[in-house]
Amino acid sequence: MKKAKLLQIIEEICPSALAEPWDNCGFQIDTGVLDYERALVALEVTSEVIDEAEAEGADIIITHHPLIFEPLKHVYYNEFIGNSIFELLSNGISVYSCHTTFDKTVGGNNDYIGELLKLKDVRPFENDNGFCRRGDTAFETTFIEMCHLAADAFDIDEKYFRTVGKLTSLVNTVGWCSGAGGEFIADALREGCDLYITGDLKHHEAQLALESGLCVLDAGHYGTEKIFTENMAAKLRTICGREDQEIEIVESQADSNPFNSGRQL
Q1: Is residue 263 in a domain?
Q2: How many CA atoms does the CB half-sphere of 152 hold within 13 Å?
Q3: Residue 169: inside a domain, yes or no?
Q4: Do the beta carbons of residue 100 and residue 26 sit within 8 Å?
Q5: How many domains are contained in the chain?
Q6: Which residue segment(s) compose the domain that 197 sits in?
Q7: What's the pLDDT tens digit per position in 153-193?
Q8: Would the pTM count as exceeding 0.85?
C-alpha cells in the first residue's frame, strides 16, 4: 500500500484535528519508505514490540501511545528512546501514533468500551470534553458485578483493579474515560453517574469521588487502553478490504503492562 493511502485511511478513522494541543500524534519515525506491505498495530512501542515488528517484517508500527512525547534534547544509544530510534531506523520501521485522536473519535477507545461493557444509549458527556462517555446498564446491577464484567471485557486480571465506594452499590448509569481520566470526576458527578471507570486515579480524585458518593473503578491505564490494538486493527482491515488495498495488518501479541511482574510480593 502506498504510504499516502495508509495515512488517508488513518485520517478517516481518527482525524488529526481531534488531537489535543499538548499531544504528539502522527509520525514519530518516518523512514521515507513509500510502500508498506505489513503494519503492526500495538498499544505502544516497547523493546518486545520492536522485536515483534522485526520478526514480522513490518514496515510500520501503528500505536496508540506516542514513542516521543516530550521534546527530545538528545538521542543516546544507551537510553530507551534513543536505542529504540536507532533500532527502528536500522530496520527501516516507521512509527505512527494515534493517541488522543483515537480516544475521542467515533468508534475509538471510549465508544468501544461502551460496546464491550454492553451498555445502552452510549453518548458523550454533556460538557462534550471529547473523551468521556456515559451509558446505561441493560438491567440493575452492582459495582462488584461491573468490576467482574470489566475484567472480562478488557481481558485484564482483577488484581490490577482499584475501587472507590461500596462494592454492593447499585449501578444504573456508568461513565468512563480510557487512560487517565481522574480529572473528569466532577463531570461524571454532574452527569449523574453511579459508577465511573478510568485509570491512573490520584488520591485526591479518589477522595472527591468517595465523599460525593460516586463509585470509581480504576482499571489501570493499560487495562482501559489495551483494547486499542484489536479495535484499530479491525478498522484498518475493514477499510483496506473495502478498498482492495494490499497490506497485511498484524496485531501485536506483546504484553506491555509495566506492572505485570508475574510474581506476588
Answers
A1: no
A2: 10
A3: yes
A4: no
A5: 2
A6: 106-219
A7: 999 999 999 999 999 999 999 999 999 999 999 999 999 99
A8: yes
